Amino acid sequence: MATIEYLVGALERGKAAGEVLPDAPSEQIARKLVALSDGLQVQWLCSRADGGHAVDMRAGDRGRRLGYQGSVARSFLIAASLSRA
Fold first, then answer.
1. Which of 16, 22, 59, 70 has its Cβ near the most Cβ atoms within 10 Å?
2. How confident is the model at residue 43 (pLDDT cuts 50, 70, 90)?
3. How far apart are the first and last CA of the chain?
């Protein structure tokens, strides 16, 4: 659950900074982002089982260390906020 808590915190900080709509449901958005991420990972695993292209998983680890996860979440949040405007 640490990821959901992290995303909820990011959303709340975004609200405080005026980057996320104040009435955005933080926990619901966080849970949907985690579900989206999980679904993408399952699709990737299924494509690999069917002979899909190899992916450098170490590159993904480097991205997480560089805060990639937060930047992806931020991009989703900004897009969600803009779509409601």
1. 70
2. confident
3. 30
